[in-house]
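Lab notebook: predicted structure, single chain.

Context: the supervisor wants predicted structures on file for every construct in the current expression panel, including those that have not yet been purified. This is the next one on the list. No modifications to the sequence; it matches the entry in the shared construct table.
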Amino acid sequence: MDYTQILGLLAAVFTTGANFPQAYKVIKTRSTKSLSAAGFSMLFLGSILWVIYGVYRDDIPVILANSIAGSLHGIILFIKFTAKKQK
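Prediction complete. Output recorded below exactly as produced.
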């Protein structure tokens, strides 16, 4: 593993890790009222496109980071669209 891959993996850990607190809060509270459906849809689609790009480029950090982030964005979107509205 060279320094460029290590740098990519570190970047992946930080940017992907930044999604965990939001996903945890949404899963725990089931509250998505303040979250933008359009914004998370764009993040979800962008993550999927990054995974495809990473596969074509054979770039493991890009594939791993965006697979995890995309999964978290997908969970948040699922809850956003299926959770009962809170008053």
